[in-house]
Each structure stands twice: as structure tokens, then as C-alpha cells.
Amino acid sequence: MWLVAGNCLVLGGYGALALQREISTFRRTMERDTRSAGEALLLLAGERWREDGREAALAAIERSSKRHSELSFRWLDGDELRTELGGGLGEGGLGAPHFVRSPTHLRAFVPFAPPHGPPGALVVQKSLGRDQRYVRRSLARLGLTTLASILVSAALAAGLGQALVGAPMRRLVDRLQRVGGGELSERLDLDRRDEFGALGDAVDRMSASLEEARDRALREASERAAALGQLRHAERLATVGRLAAGVAHELGTPLNVILARAKLAQRQREQPEQVVAHTDTIAQQAQRMTRIVRQLL
Based on the number of CB atoms within 10 Å of its own CB, is 230 exposed (0-12), middle (13-18) or buried (19 or more)? Predict the structure, then answer.
């Protein structure tokens, strides 16, 4: 954006300078043409002045003035010239052509020393109407050309900026957002040899590194989970083993008592009191075993 604005500013400045240069060139051209017309007429008037006198030369100047629609000529003697120019004329007279410009006319005072009589000047007055219209048309064309150049340059700069900067920048931003979202397998592949290409390659390398690190972390997490599962299974087996050993120990004693009492009851069948005592002990031990099993559950 700043590049487009700077380019437009440069073209606008160049257009303004070109306008000023065109105006200055046109003014110098008009002054040169007006002076040349006066000098050409003075050559003819000088010949007539030398051959036929002052009146014949002034008559030739007047006829030339009537023949031109945009130029008028008149002769001024020294006093008349001093009155016409006022403070613009020094003591030594008019040494070089002098120009006076008004909004509608340009006057050129071309000095001349006639063969007979005091020096004076030929006043060449040129109407600026048609020339000013030409200047306005030229300036309008120059302004339109400058404006068209600015618009075309702005369009080209915007298009090139979009193609060379905007599009790859949007792709980079979109890719970085995807990387932030966890999509690491995609690659940019800008295929450029400038800074954007280097940045795209760096983003691709970063994505590949992140993807490799993520896969490695997933594998390590899976391996840790498997090892933890095996450890827990081993702990459960150890717990079951300890539980079985404890159950075997706790149940072993009442089972031994039950077995011993049952054998005594078989041997003392003829002694009912002893059998009853043995059966009571067997019942007690059985209840003890029941309590142990309930505690385990």
C-alpha cells in the first residue's frame, strides 16, 4: 500500500514538474517567435528607412500590422518608449529585447537604431487567446496522461503486489494457522527463490520436524501405556498370589481342626458326648471359614 502511494506521489510530482516545464517552454517559445517576427520586420523596415525615409518605413510597419490577425506592430521613438516602459528603461535606452506579459497579450519591445534619426523600438503585440487555448489543451492532455500513468502504475503495483506478496503471504498465514491446529502433514511447496520461498521452506521443515516429534511422542506414549499395563497386570498377579497365600494360610488352620475332629468322631462313635463335642467344634471352624471368605469378598 505504501509502495503504491509512493509511486503515485512520484508520478504526481513528475506530472507537476512536467506541467511547469511545458508552461515555461511555451512562454519562451512565444517570446522567441514574437521577437523573431519583430526582427524580421525590422530588416525590411530598415531597408525601406534607408532608401525611402522614415515615413515609408512606418507605413510598411503599419501595413504589416494590418495583414496579421494575431500580431500588431508599431514603432516607438525614444521618448515614447520611455513613456511606455516607465522605470523599465535605463539611461542608455533599450539594449535588448524586453517582454511585457498581460493575461491576454504579450508585448515584445525589440530595440532598433534606424539609419536616420534617434533609436527606438518596434513593439510587437501578440494575442494570447489561441495560444492559451492550446496551452490549456496541452496541459489537459498532459494532466490526463499523468493521471492515466498514475492509475496504470497503481493497478500494476497492486496486481504485482497481490501476485508477488499478497498471495504467498496469505498461503503462509493459512499454513501457520493449520500448523497451530495440528495439521502437520501438508506442505507449502511455494517453489520460489526469494524471501517468501525461503520462509516457505522453513515452515515446511518446521512442520516436518513437528510431525516427527509428534509421532515419536505418540510412540513413546503408547510404549509407556503398554509397559504400565504390563506392570499393573504383574501387580494384580502378585496381589492375587499374596491373597491366595493368605487365604490358604487362614483356611488351613480351621481345615486341619475340622479334619482332626472328624477323624476323632469316627473313632468315638460309641461315645455320643464326644461326637457331639467334635461336631460342635467342626461347626465353629466352618463358621470361622465362612467369616474369612466373607471378609475376602
Answer: exposed
